[in-house]
């Protein structure tokens, strides 16, 4: 009964507002002048103020209908929703959408370049006294209502009802690059289904690239089997099927052995604990790839059949959320205390971010884990934070480290020639066991934004892509 009463009040308010606006609005009423705004041209195919609001058949369109009625108000478009909550249970936050906001979102050919998808309307020349006459109609082909607006300056716009309704229950679109949205977490046994795709399929079809990028997006890593290993160029071309290879102080595509050619422990044969790479960049590498081209025994090898060097992967999001459950204060500390990170071992190199970053980086609203940044070897001095003492940070980091060393969260895989490993460096921590013999590895970094662009365009419809990247 309370819900019906609330809806009735919204409908009554809308009717009252429509009656108030039966005559054209003057710019004086919105404080921008005294000249009356003229009516739209008579020849226009757009709606007029005399048209009645359409009564849409509720049952037939109830699956996708979201808007009951719309009204023109001096400050904006007033929306009466079918329900005061959407399918996810989000309550209505606003019913009035400002005219200037609406006009700025017009996607017609004169407002947006249809080839480049770039805005070409001159936003700051939109008259502040602009208003519109509105019409609600159904569009079964798109399974949504359409709202037409004939603007007071003669321009005509059409908006999807789902787009308008979304902004009555939400303030903004969620960040499209947040890794956690499609996660399938895993531990020592790895994902439920092995994330494997064949090299030939990736190289010869876009469907292969779609599968590869989606496996990485959902599970954090993927293997590409059948990669030729006689020449590292094959691996390079494989990675370029995803996106451009990132250039760093290590170069671009790398091909190395344990010869300390660069001052980094990766160029040794010692064991490495679970870590993420490039913590010292403001924008750490998005993807990282390893392909073991060869591993042969040498004079130091005691057993040619057991050379070591097994690769370690840890689902950092799974580990972080486990920490949040068992030690919420530790999770909070590692989310709030920013730290310095650096790469300064090589001559002429002194890289550090332009700002400090915590171990766990959260979304703008603080509700979702976006990125794990962890390499204790590249960490600088723990600061004296206004809320947390260094002792508290070390205790929290100790709890985190214990989880990374927990066998239940560690997935081990022996890399071999012909199998390329590609993983999400924002989510998955990697390490290795010590090894003997001569091992040759090739691989590269790929930027997060480039990877996400490739994933998005292959795994989402153009309409879905526009919704998440534009709003």
TrEMBL record:
Cofactor(s) recorded in Swiss-Prot or TrEMBL: Fe(2+); L-ascorbate
Entries under InterPro entries matching the protein: AlphaKG_dependent_hydroxylases (IPR050411), GBBH-like_N (IPR010376), GBBH-like_N_sf (IPR038492), TauD-like_sf (IPR042098), TauD/TfdA-like (IPR003819), Trimethyllysine_dOase (IPR012776)
Enzyme Commission no: 1.14.11.8
Residues in Gamma-butyrobetaine hydroxylase-like N-terminal domain copies: 93-164
Region (Disordered): 30-54
GO cellular-component term (any): mitochondrion
A GO biological process held by the record: carnitine biosynthetic process
Molecular-function GO terms, alphabetical: iron ion binding; trimethyllysine dioxygenase activity
Keyword Metal-binding: yes
Family annotation (Gene3D superfamilies): 3.30.2020.30, Clavaminate synthase-like
Pathway: Amine and polyamine biosynthesis; carnitine biosynthesis
Keywords: Carnitine biosynthesis, Dioxygenase, Iron, Metal-binding, Oxidoreductase
Catalytic activity: N(6),N(6),N(6)-trimethyl-L-lysine + 2-oxoglutarate + O2 = (3S)-3-hydroxy-N(6),N(6),N(6)-trimethyl-L-lysine + succinate + CO2
UniProt domain TauD/TfdA-like: residue ranges: 196-445
Family under the similarity heading: Belongs to the gamma-BBH/TMLD family.
Known role: Converts trimethyllysine (TML) into hydroxytrimethyllysine (HTML).
NCBIfam families reported for this sequence: carnitine_TMLD
Name of the protein in question: trimethyllysine dioxygenase
Organism: Podospora aff. communis PSN243
């Amino acid at each position: 009964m309370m819900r019906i009463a609330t809806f009735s009040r919204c409908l009554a308010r809308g009717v009252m507002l429509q009656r108030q606006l039966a005559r054209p609005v003057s710019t004086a009423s919105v404080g921008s002048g005294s000249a009356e705004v003229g009516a739209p041209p008579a020849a226009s195919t757009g709606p007029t103020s005399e048209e009645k609001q359409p009564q849409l058949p509720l049952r037939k369109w109830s699956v996708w209908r979201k808007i009951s009625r719309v009204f023109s108000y001096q400050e904006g478009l007033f929306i009466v929703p079918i329900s005061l909550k959407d399918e996810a249970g989000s309550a209505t936050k606003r019913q009035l959408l400002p005219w200037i906001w609406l006009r700025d979102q017009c996607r017609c050919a004169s407002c947006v370049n249809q080839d480049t998808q770039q805005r070409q309307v001159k936003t700051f020349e939109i008259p502040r006294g602009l208003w519109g006459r509105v019409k609600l109609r159904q569009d079964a082909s798109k399974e949504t209502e359409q709202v037409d607006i004939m603007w007071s300056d003669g321009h005509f716009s059409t908006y999807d009802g789902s787009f308008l309704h979304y902004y009555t229950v939400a303030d903004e679109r969620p960040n499209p690059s947040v890794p956690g949205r499609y996660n399938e977490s895993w531990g020592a046994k790895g994902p439920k289904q092995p994330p494997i795709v064949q090299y030939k399929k990736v190289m010869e079809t876009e469907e292969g690239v779609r599968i590869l990028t989606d496996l990485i997006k959902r599970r954090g890593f993927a293997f590409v089997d059948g990669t030729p290993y006689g020449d590292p160029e094959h691996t390079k071309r494989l990675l370029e099927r995803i996106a451009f290879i990132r250039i760093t102080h290590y170069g671009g595509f790398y091909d190395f052995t344990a010869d300390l050619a660069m001052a980094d422990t990766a160029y040794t044969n010692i064991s490495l604990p679970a870590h993420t790479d490039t913590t010292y960049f403001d924008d750490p590498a998005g993807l990282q790839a390893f392909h073991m081209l060869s591993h042969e025994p040498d004079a130091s090898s005691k057993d040619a059949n057991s050379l070591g060097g097994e690769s370690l992967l840890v689902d950092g999001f799974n580990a972080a959320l486990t920490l949040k459950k068992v030690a919420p204060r530790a999770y909070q500390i590692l989310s709030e205390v920013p730290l310095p990170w650096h790469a300064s071992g090589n001559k002429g190199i002194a890289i550090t971010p332009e700002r400090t970053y915590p171990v766990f980086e959260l979304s703008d609203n603080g509700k979702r884990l976006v990125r794990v940044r962890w390499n204790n070897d590249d960490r600088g001095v723990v600061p004296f934070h206004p809320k947390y003492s260094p002792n508290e940070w070390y205790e929290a980091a100790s709890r985190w480290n214990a989880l990374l060393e927990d066998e239940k969260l560690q997935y081990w895989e022996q890399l071999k020639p012909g199998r390329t490993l590609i993983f999400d460096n924002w989510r998955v921590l990697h390490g290795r066991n010590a090894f003997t013999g001569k091992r040759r590895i090739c691989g590269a970094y790929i930027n997060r934004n480039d990877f996400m662009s490739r994933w998005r365009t292959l795994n989402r419809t153009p309409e879905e892509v526009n919704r998440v990247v534009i709003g």
